[in-house]
Amino acid sequence: MIYVGCCGFPKGRAACFQHFSLVEVQQTFYRPPRPETARRWRQEAPPDFIFTLKAWQLITHPPTSPTYRRSGLSIPPDRRDRYGGFRPTPEVLEAWERTREVALALEVPIVVFQCPATFTPTPENIAAMRQFFSMVDRAGMRFAWEPRGPWEDETVAALCRDLDLIHCVDPFVRQPVTAGVAYFRLHGVGGYRYRFTDADLLRILEWCRPFETAYVLFNNISMWEDGLRLQSQLLVTSRESSETSP
Q1: Has residue 153 got a pLDDT over 90?
Q2: Rounded to two decimals, what is the model's pTM?
């Protein structure tokens, strides 16, 4: 199964529900909506529509990250060492509980933990990851981890195996080291303004084939158009495959 969608709602929710099978909610990264709002979105969507979401940045990003400005959050200087980096502090664990409430309301199968490039594979960071993911209640959901920065495949593979994580990647940058489920976030080759070519879309489909399930999320300036084109290509490929089957 290959599910195609966008990171966020590039158009109104009704249009996204009509044209795609999947959306990754971005609002939860900056400041989670109320669970009542999430339940309303779930009720508005078709029963088989899939929501995934990004975990609140208070879990993964330090308060010095520029992404905090967009959220309107102001963390006192003397408390900044209590946020981000998977630190098992009450503040981070509370941020997970807020994320978890919204995830349950949306009935998401996967929560994405996107790390900043400053989160490097130091012993302290690896220990914090191990402690955080061993403590939190997953409530039946899968976790996808998108590391950035100088993480070696061997280290990522070991952590994903030990902590039951899906290796979330942009496949144009690196290939995942986990099997079974693919979670691709397509940021644009070289940047957000990139528009994917037909050849790019065929490569994406090829990268999906080894996996039982693939979630493909576009996160570039033409995410709406590129997502629709990939879905069309997927239909053509499926039809051609059925016609050649004995």
Answers
A1: yes
A2: 0.94
